[in-house]
Structure formats: structure tokens, C-alpha cells
């Protein structure tokens, strides 16, 4: 067969070479990739039936002749083997186990008896296969026990009841995996919705200018100030005294000053101005304290932007660069942790069914709670990173070093030692 193929290839080689390299002045300059692509194109057209668009083209005709030559050489051997297989009864497919999907079994059966050819397919399976042990019912075990009593060792057993039971088990397996795939899609839709929202926000930060980033990060800082005060006063009873309220307010202000060192002075000043008209023992309204904390935070934020802007050089917008860096860093780290939390939740949410709860509903609720915490974490950490930056410690970017002059040798120098000549100059 190899000799016949080589002979057919040699006969078709001149026509193929002429068809491939006819439009090139020099065949050796043709790239191998272009030549292979052209060969594939010719082969695809050659196998297809002739048409008006391809009829009469020298390249296509040469490739079709080569294809027909190779096909004729193959047919001399394949036709004989095909006839021998038919005389012996066709292809026999022997299956040793059932697949989890009926479709795969039918494909295996379809290998024999194709297009009217002779053939047969037989499955010789064991009742101790993993699929039957896992998905089989007690009835399957009873059938196995009955057949062990009725039949001798090594004797094949055939029964319509057994075949029906095996088909039922396969349907159970297919339903099980179908439900798994359906649940996977349902769970993934929740994650995909969160992913779209998250990456949309991240893209806005990535392409935003200084005005957008300042507004966004300033809002993060203000929201964190409100949350800090809310956490400080969360445990206060409704009938709390003025001293207890003042202690809670002071604790919240101190926590915010620790988180935002760049705003510590402005926060303290805003709180003092808000409380200067009140007696020392009287507690202010919580909304007044909140407004003073937010106002001091905003003033400190604007001052931080101005201080960092003074450190910038040239056309570099240093505040925008640093704010974008801090926000994107928190976005990426928080999203990685969020994916790990979702994976842990997905592995353990199934236990909710023991308490008569829908696992998917619990997954939806808890995953949304995690996403809300993710957003709050990004907001808080981004604002803390920006307002913890010591603007006075920012060092200007050093200038690029000047490349040393190349030791070029002139006509008057000693060419035997060009380095010494350059150093002498």
C-alpha cells in the first residue's frame, strides 16, 4: 500500500507543485504555513463535487486528480477487505459494560450494521458493575441472587426483566446527572450576575479620570465614616444616658481617626465645632455627630488629594494613579477571596436540606450577603489605604539615567585598541 501511495503521489506531484507555486516567482521563498493552507484548501475543494466555480481551474483539477489517484489506490485494498468482512458476517460489537448514558451505548451499537451492512452487537455485562451497585435498588439485588441460584457459574443469563431493570437504572443515572447539570447552571447564573456587576464597576475604575475616582473614593470614605459611627452606637440602649452616648460617639470618632490618619485633624476640628454650642454633659444628636464625621472626612480627603497632587511631576496625574491603584488592588483581592467563599458555600449548602430548607434558595440568599459584604469590604479598605498614605513621604520619580557615549573609533584612532582610543578621547 505504501508503494502504491508513493507512486500516486509522484504522479500527482508535478500538478500539485504547479498549482501551489504557480503565482510565485521563486518557490523556495514561499512560507510553509501558506503552502499548507493552500494544500488544505485544494483538498477540501477536490473532495467536494465539481461546481461551476471550481471547474476548469488548474490548481483544483490537479488536486482532484491527485485525490482520485490516492482514492483509487486505497479502494483496491479497502474494497477487498470490505467484501471479506461481509462474507464473515460483518462487524461484531461486544460491549463489556453499560455506559451511564443510553446515547453512548446506541452510538457503540451503531458502529455495526451501518447503511445496510451486516453486523451485530452484544453486551456481556456483570451485575456487580459500579453503576448497578450505586444506582440499583433492592430489586436488583434480589434478581442477582435469584439468577445465582438458577444459573450455573459462567453461564450467560438472558431475561427481559433483567434488561428492563438495567434500562431503568440507566434512566436513573441520566436523570441524576441531568439534575446535576441543571443545578450547576442555576448556581452559575447567580455567580455570573455578580461577576458582571463586579467587572462593570472595575472597568469604570480602570477607565475613570481623577474627578470620577475622587468622587467614588470620597463616597467610599463617607460611607465608611457612617458605618463606623453606626457600629459604635449599635449596642446603645434606647434609654441610654448622655454619658453613655458621649462615650460611644468618642469611641466612633477615635476609631475613624485611626483608620484615616490623614483626616484625624479635620475630624477632630469638625467634631469640636459641632459641639461648641452644647453643654459639656449634654449628648449631641446622632445625626449631628454623623454630619461632623462625614464633613471632617471629606475635608481631609480633599486635603490629601491636594498634597499628593503637589508631588506629581509633568503630565502624570499622581492622585488618579494612586487612587486607581488602591481601588483595583482591593477589587482583585476581594474578588479572589469571594470566589473561595462561594466555593466553600457551594460545597456545604447541601446540608441545608436536612433542616427542610431549599439548598438553592439558601445559596442565593447567602451568596448575595457575601457579595454585599464584598462591596463594603472594597469600599472600606480602599478608603483606608488612600487616607493612610503619608503624602509627605512620596518621593519624586528619578530621572532616567543618561546612556554613556558609545566608544566609536574614528579614522585617526588606533584600530588595534579601540577601547583605549575611546577612553583617551
Short descriptors:
425 residues; mainly alpha; two-stranded parallel ribbon; 14 helices; 2 strands; elongated
Coarse structural class: mainly alpha
Low-confidence stretches: 405-410
The biggest sheet amounts to: 2 strands, parallel
- The separation of the N and C termini measures 76 Å
Summary?
The protein is mainly alpha-helical.
Give a structural overview:
The longest helix is centred in the middle third of the chain and has 48 residues, at 160-207. A two-stranded parallel ribbon has the order 1-2. It has helices at residues 2-21, 32-47, 58-87, 102-109, 130-135, 138-150, 160-207, 210-232, 242-259, 264-275, 286-310, 318-348, 359-387, 418-424, and strands spanning 91-95, 119-123. With 425 residues, the chain is mainly alpha-helical. α4 (102-109) links the parallel β1 (91-95) and β2. Helices cover 67% and strands 2% of the residues. 18% of the residues are buried. It contains 14 helices and two strands. α8 (210-232) crosses α12.
Amino acid at each position: 500500500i505504501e508503494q502504491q501511495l508513493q507512486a500516486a503521489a509522484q504522479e500527482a506531484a508535478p500538478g500539485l507543485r504547479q498549482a501551489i507555486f504557480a503565482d510565485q516567482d521563486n518557490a523556495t521563498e514561499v512560507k510553509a504555513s501558506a503552502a499548507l493552507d493552500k494544500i488544505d484548501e485544494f483538498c477540501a475543494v477536490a473532495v467536494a463535487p465539481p461546481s461551476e466555480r471550481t471547474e476548469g481551474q488548474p490548481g483544483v483539477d490537479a488536486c482532484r486528480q491527485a485525490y482520485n489517484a490516492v482514492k483509487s489506490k486505497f479502494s483496491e485494498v479497502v474494497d477487498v477487505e470490505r467484501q471479506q468482512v461481509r462474507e464473515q458476517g460483518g462487524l461484531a460489537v461486544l460491549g463489556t459494560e453499560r455506559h451511564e448514558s443510553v446515547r453512548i451505548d446506541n452510538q457503540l451499537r451503531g458502529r455495526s450494521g451501518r447503511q445496510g451492512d451486516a453486523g451485530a452487537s452484544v453486551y456481556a455485562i456483570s451485575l456487580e458493575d459500579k453503576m448497578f451497585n450505586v444506582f440499583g435498588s433492592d430489586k436488583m439485588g434480589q434478581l442477582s441472587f435469584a439468577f445465582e441460584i438458577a444459573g450455573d457459574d459462567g453461564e450467560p443469563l438472558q431475561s427481559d426483566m433483567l434488561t428492563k431493570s438495567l434500562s431503568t437504572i440507566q434512566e436513573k443515572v441520566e436523570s441524576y446527572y441531568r439534575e446535576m447539570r441543571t443545578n450547576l447552571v442555576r448556581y452559575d447564573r447567580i455567580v455570573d450576575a455578580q461577576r458582571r456587576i463586579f467587572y462593570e464597576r472595575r472597568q469604570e475604575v480602570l477607565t475613570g479620570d481623577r474627578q470620577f475616582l475622587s468622587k467614588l473614593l470620597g463616597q467610599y470614605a463617607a460611607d465608611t465614616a457612617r458605618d463606623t459611627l453606626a457600629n459604635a452606637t449599635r449596642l446603645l440602649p434606647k434609654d441610654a444616658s448622655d454619658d453613655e452616648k458621649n462615650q460611644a460617639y468618642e469611641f466612633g470618632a477615635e476609631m475613624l481617626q485611626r483608620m484615616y490618619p490623614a483626616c484625624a485633624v479635620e475630624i477632630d476640628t469638625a467634631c469640636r465645632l459641632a459641639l461648641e454650642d452644647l453643654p459639656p454633659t449634654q449628648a449631641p444628636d446622632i445625626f449631628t455627630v454623623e454630619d461632623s464625621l462625614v464633613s471632617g472626612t471629606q475635608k481631609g480627603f480633599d486635603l490629601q488629594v491636594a498634597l499628593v497632587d503637589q508631588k506629581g511631576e509633568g503630565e502624570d496625574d499622581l492622585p488618579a494613579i494612586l487612587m486607581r491603584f488602591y481601588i483595583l488592588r482591593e477589587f482583585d483581592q476581594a474578588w479572589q477571596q469571594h470566589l473561595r467563599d462561594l466555593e466553600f458555600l457551594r460545597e456545604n449548602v447541601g446540608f441545608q436540606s436536612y433542616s427542610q430548607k431549599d439548598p438553592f434558595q439558601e445559596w442565593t440568599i447567602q451568596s448575595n450577603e457575601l457579595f454585599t459584604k464584598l462591596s463594603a469590604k472594597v469600599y472600606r479598605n480602599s478608603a483606608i489605604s488612600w487616607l493612610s498614605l503619608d503624602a509627605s513621604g512620596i518621593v519624586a520619580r528619578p530621572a532616567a539615567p543618561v546612556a554613556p557615549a558609545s566608544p566609536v573609533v574614528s579614522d585617526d584612532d588606533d584600530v588595534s585598541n579601540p577601547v583605549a582610543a575611546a577612553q583617551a578621547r
